[in-house]
């Protein structure tokens, strides 16, 4: 991709900032105290694109939203709850997800097939519909920061911080705003793990092209993070583009198509990294860059294997420059390469060259590893393939959170 | 396999019990205090079979042992150290491994190409050869329990217990003894992870048939355990059969061939389960049985995915019957099945049938999960494939051990 100068990161916008979007989040009673019900609405039906979990078990709300995305290509609102995943809940679960869709549509006075549904939380428990339906009646989305923050909080499970990002770009001379919010933070691994991502933009684009743009960047963003290797039954990223920026309709032939895709890429990558950094119990973001692989795909495979290795993750938690574990992970990744050509760096320190260890300052590296963002670089010297992956360290808190999740 | 009645588990034998085997283990100085150097010897050259790590990075000692196994098919002794893996140590590492082989051969007065070498410990550090070579001079293997226990202790890294098992069977009217010892306990995952296994028997068999027997049971034993998904650069399982039981040479046509294979299987499965149970920081052995898969291979894949899931492992550590995590792992395993046909049990309690949750007593299940051995059963209802996998829970101690391993 060539750099497009009009794209600009802006920190002060939110998912309700693109023209015509409103959001809110409240406590309805699925959780003890915290917010657990959220709504995102566009003034007009928006083109929609979505990517969904590859798990064979797919939660009821996910099936409902998939249906909206795949059949109409338009979405005007999405209702989201935390506290219960409505997954493996059989026919009752499907009925409940459709009821959520129906009641939200009635409340908003729109067609149910314009309403998506998302849920996150414990698997296998029937949804408490009474507080949820009462909650839907209490939702008043607004186009202000407060509404977007309420939404971001209400979709959280074990997340410790809300995750938001925004960008603007110019298309056909019109300012186009992009914003995204997401939640993690366990069961995160390739192919849409326990992750919910919502991206809004006022760009004007048809849903088939929006879907193509989202698909083209999913592998290098949302599918390039891992927290624990587990893939959830619920997770999805949905992009809504309502066209209110009034640019000419975007297609791959549009002169500013790349600008659109790059901005979507930037929003997605920001959200993905925030999810990785806020992995359950995490204290550090780990970025692994692989260069010189046979293909980009192989590079990403190596990067993900390294960033997902429990032994690498615990070593980094302990600020221990135990690069042998990086080597071991590279070696079992399934990628083909000559072990005698491998180069490994942590931060700026060269640790391995031509497959052999080289001396380094333990003290310098210890100080580097104590930081909250750690970079590992692997050079395979096999070709031009490159890739990035993000993850987090494995800590006492991960065990604590997950040994007691339902309690 | 049909049951062979002559096979009998015997607890009082050890790797020095089959006729003509001797063992020892001492402290030579690679570790601070603990034993770190071990030797296993047969009075006569033994037929040998081995399976080795699939990691692209292969440690120097492993390459030396592989050469012995693959070129001569005979081994008379194996020298093993802990404290240093001699992996990613380049040309110096290869030279050091050959020196270990050579000096052990000299000490025993045998041909170097009858001597295997194995190492386990930190990757990427050059071996301290001085204490090691002095140590080799101090090795006096004996055919008594003390020698075998010294060996079992000296190969340990973060293992908390020695791992030993023994069986006897009868072939051609002769008593044949089998014994095995192994070490784990981190970097344990498919395909020969950080695991060293040594099996001795006085059976009479050629190395090509011994290799075939070992290969036939590796996938369902050593390759069916996982501690943390990491695969080491060093690990191997070696079987030595010295023929001193004086049975007629075993081949697949021998009427008691199955008896031989089953006994080897039993030794291997015992060692594999002991390694899983003593995984780093583990408090519980988890056994996952998958039935009704399309193939046995697919069944094992599902079983290994479940037993390797960090979320399942932490839930079991917390005695939490969070079966949704089992469902999620089954669903991402890559196996093909209908989610509406799945049945899941923990212990004897049915939790999911036809893909839907069924009520169970939380209290009973909590009490069951507090035990040290936990069984999960998954029925896919797709075919006749079945498989087992073993692993352990994920605990605070795993993090503690691995955040500080090199310190």
TrEMBL record, chains A, B:
<comment type="subunit">
    <text>Heterotetramer of two alpha and two beta chains.</text>
</comment>
<feature type="site" description="Involved in the stabilization of negative charge on the oxyanion by the formation of the oxyanion hole">
    <location>
        <position position="121"/>
    </location>
</feature>
<dbReference type="InterPro" id="IPR042195">
    <property type="entry name" value="ArgJ_beta_C"/>
</dbReference>
<dbReference type="InterPro" id="IPR002813">
    <property type="entry name" value="Arg_biosynth_ArgJ"/>
</dbReference>
<dbReference type="GO" id="GO:0004358">
    <property type="term" value="F:L-glutamate N-acetyltransferase activity, acting on acetyl-L-ornithine as donor"/>
</dbReference>
<keyword id="KW-0028">Amino-acid biosynthesis</keyword>
<feature type="binding site">
    <location>
        <position position="183"/>
    </location>
    <ligand>
        <name>substrate</name>
    </ligand>
</feature>
<keyword id="KW-0963">Cytoplasm</keyword>
<keyword id="KW-0808">Transferase</keyword>
<keyword id="KW-0012">Acyltransferase</keyword>
<feature type="site" description="Cleavage; by autolysis">
    <location>
        <begin position="193"/>
        <end position="194"/>
    </location>
</feature>
<dbReference type="InterPro" id="IPR016117">
    <property type="entry name" value="ArgJ-like_dom_sf"/>
</dbReference>
<dbReference type="GO" id="GO:0005737">
    <property type="term" value="C:cytoplasm"/>
</dbReference>
<feature type="active site" description="Nucleophile">
    <location>
        <position position="194"/>
    </location>
</feature>
<feature type="binding site">
    <location>
        <position position="194"/>
    </location>
    <ligand>
        <name>substrate</name>
    </ligand>
</feature>
<protein>
    <recommendedName>
        <fullName>Arginine biosynthesis bifunctional protein ArgJ</fullName>
        <ecNumber>2.3.1.35</ecNumber>
        <ecNumber>2.3.1.1</ecNumber>
    </recommendedName>
</protein>
<comment type="pathway">
    <text>Amino-acid biosynthesis; L-arginine biosynthesis; L-ornithine and N-acetyl-L-glutamate from L-glutamate and N(2)-acetyl-L-ornithine (cyclic): step 1/1.</text>
</comment>
<feature type="binding site">
    <location>
        <position position="402"/>
    </location>
    <ligand>
        <name>substrate</name>
    </ligand>
</feature>
<dbReference type="Pfam" id="PF01960">
    <property type="entry name" value="ArgJ"/>
</dbReference>
<keyword id="KW-0068">Autocatalytic cleavage</keyword>
<feature type="binding site">
    <location>
        <position position="157"/>
    </location>
    <ligand>
        <name>substrate</name>
    </ligand>
</feature>
<comment type="similarity">
    <text>Belongs to the ArgJ family.</text>
</comment>
<comment type="pathway">
    <text>Amino-acid biosynthesis; L-arginine biosynthesis; N(2)-acetyl-L-ornithine from L-glutamate: step 1/4.</text>
</comment>
<feature type="site" description="Involved in the stabilization of negative charge on the oxyanion by the formation of the oxyanion hole">
    <location>
        <position position="120"/>
    </location>
</feature>
<comment type="function">
    <text>Catalyzes two activities which are involved in the cyclic version of arginine biosynthesis: the synthesis of N-acetylglutamate from glutamate and acetyl-CoA as the acetyl donor, and of ornithine by transacetylation between N(2)-acetylornithine and glutamate.</text>
</comment>
<feature type="binding site">
    <location>
        <position position="280"/>
    </location>
    <ligand>
        <name>substrate</name>
    </ligand>
</feature>
<dbReference type="GO" id="GO:0006526">
    <property type="term" value="P:L-arginine biosynthetic process"/>
</dbReference>
<dbReference type="GO" id="GO:0006592">
    <property type="term" value="P:ornithine biosynthetic process"/>
</dbReference>
<dbReference type="GO" id="GO:0004042">
    <property type="term" value="F:L-glutamate N-acetyltransferase activity"/>
</dbReference>
<keyword id="KW-0055">Arginine biosynthesis</keyword>
<feature type="binding site">
    <location>
        <position position="407"/>
    </location>
    <ligand>
        <name>substrate</name>
    </ligand>
</feature>
<keyword id="KW-0511">Multifunctional enzyme</keyword>
């Amino acid at each position: 991709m060539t750099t497009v100068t009009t794209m600009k990161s802006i920190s002060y916008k939110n998912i309700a900032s693109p023209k015509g979007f409103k959001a809110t989040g409240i406590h309805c009673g699925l959780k003890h105290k915290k917010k657990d019900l959220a709504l995102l609405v566009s003034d007009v039906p928006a083109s929609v694109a979505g990517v969904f979990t590859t798990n064979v078990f797919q939660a009821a709300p996910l099936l409902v939203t998939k249906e909206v995305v795949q059949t109409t290509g338009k979405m005007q609102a999405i209702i989201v709850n935390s506290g219960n995943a409505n997954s493996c809940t059989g026919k009752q679960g499907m009925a409940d997800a459709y009821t959520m869709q129906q009641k939200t549509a009635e409340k908003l006075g729109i067609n149910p097939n314009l309403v998506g549904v998302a849920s996150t939380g414990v698997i296998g428990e029937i949804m408490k519909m009474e507080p949820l339906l009462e909650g839907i009646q209490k939702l008043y989305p607004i186009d202000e920061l407060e509404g977007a923050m309420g939404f971001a909080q209400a979709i959280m499970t074990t997340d410790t911080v809300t995750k938001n990002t925004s960008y603007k770009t110019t298309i056909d001379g019109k300012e186009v705003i992009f914003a995204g919010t997401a939640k993690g933070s366990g069961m995160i691994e390739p192919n849409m793990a326990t992750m919910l991502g919502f991206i809004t933009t006022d760009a004007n684009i048809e849903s088939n092209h929006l879907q193509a743009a989202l698909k083209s960047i999913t592998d290098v963003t949302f599918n390039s993070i891992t927290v624990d290797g587990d893939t959830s039954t619920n997770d999805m990223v949905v992009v809504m583009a309502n066209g209110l920026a009034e640019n000419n309709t975007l297609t791959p032939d549009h002169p500013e198509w790349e600008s659109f895709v790059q901005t979507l890429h930037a929003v997605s990558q920001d959200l993905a990294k925030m999810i990785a950094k806020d992995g359950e119990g995490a204290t550090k973001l780990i970025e692994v860059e692989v260069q010189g692989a046979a293909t980009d795909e192989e590079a990403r495979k190596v990067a993900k294997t390294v960033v997902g290795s429990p032994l690498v993750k615990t070593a980094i938690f302990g600020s221990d420059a135990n690069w042998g574990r990086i080597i071991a992970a590279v070696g079992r990744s399934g990628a083909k390469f000559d072990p005698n050509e491998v180069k490994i760096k942590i931060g700026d320190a060269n640790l391995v060259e031509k497959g052999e260890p080289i001396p380094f300052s333990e003290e310098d590296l210890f100080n580097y590893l104590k930081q909250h963002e750690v970079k590992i670089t692997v050079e395979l010297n096999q070709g031009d393939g490159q890739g990035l992956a993000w993850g987090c360290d494995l800590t006492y808190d991960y065990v604590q959170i997950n040994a007691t999740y339902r309690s």
